[in-house]
Amino acid sequence: MPVFSSDFLPTMPFRNGYFNTTYRPLFMKDKATYTRKRISTWDRDFFDLDFSFVGSKTLILLIHGLEGSSDSKYMASSVNHLKKEGLDTVCFNLRGCSGEDNLLLSTYHSGKTEDVDFVVNYLLENYNYKNIVIVGFSLGGNLTLKYIGEKGENISPIVKGGIAVSVPIDIGSAEIEMDKLKNKLFMEMFFKTMKNKLLEKAYKFPEYKLDQGKLFKATKFKHLEHLYTVPVFGFESPEDYWEKASSKPHLLNIKKPTLLINAKDDSFLSRECYPYEEAENSKFFFFEETKFGGHVGFMTSFKPNENRWLEHRIERFIKENIQLDIL
């Protein structure tokens, strides 16, 4: 029954989920230094991978969340912490998220694990690591869980496990939460970049008949899914996308030690995103619900050197629960 009792207990005002969610991106100053490698894809596109090498036999593959990148504060802080612990890292910038638009009309979505599979295979074929661990945040966490679950027993023996943080594992119900007034500010932030990207795609690909009137009026993810995700990726409807992209149905198929950390006060998540039952019925899938933490926050106090609970938790799970080949 791999369900963890959490030791995360922040000071005030970090026990407020909204405060904890916004503090990291607004006030933390984490930056990381990377070596960028651009790789070509099977469908004539590219991925930008940002490496941080220390000469380890273990590589941590990090995947960011919606509209994030390797520059996101949670990515940079994780890279810097893992680097100090002697682990190599690579940040996978999803299509169109590396600072340069990708070449195709299609970019990324919450369930596009074929892209994760391609990157993992590239790393396996071009680098001589003994261990790969996948760490994903929010949307990237959904990709992590779905990928490891889809692969099941067929996953490469070099991939030793995964960690996912603040994940809407049930996309449909999570979108209902995101549509509520409590998340209006966050939605406006997401939509600012997402709408601009869709306008750019419509300009580059005239055959993509974007209804700009509906785009400007869009206030829900479902609206953007009708306009872009469904027609571009070939889903039948937003509901079809939610069902096929969600990682929750794949959790019981996970066959490598994998941890999900979700905060109870995460305003992005529905009650369906706390999979106690799945963890209790799995030997490999671990779940930890923290009382506080917000969405990819997990800040402890105003002292920067004390604000590393999440990074330490990721490190601890790797060391205590994932069997790494160190020979």
TrEMBL record:
- Active-site feature positions: S138 (charge relay system), D266 (charge relay system), H295 (charge relay system)
- One GO molecular-function annotation for this sequence? short-chain carboxylesterase activity
Q: Which domain of life is it from?
A: Bacteria
Q: Check the record and name the InterPro entries matching this protein.
A: AB_hydrolase_1 (IPR000073), AB_hydrolase_4_sf (IPR050960), AB_hydrolase_fold (IPR029058), ABHD4 (IPR012020)
Domain named AB hydrolase-1: which ranges?
Answer: 59-279
Q: This protein is called what?
A: Alpha/beta hydrolase
Alphabetized, the UniProt keywords read: Hydrolase
**Hey, which family's this protein in?**
Belongs to the AB hydrolase superfamily. AB hydrolase 4 family.
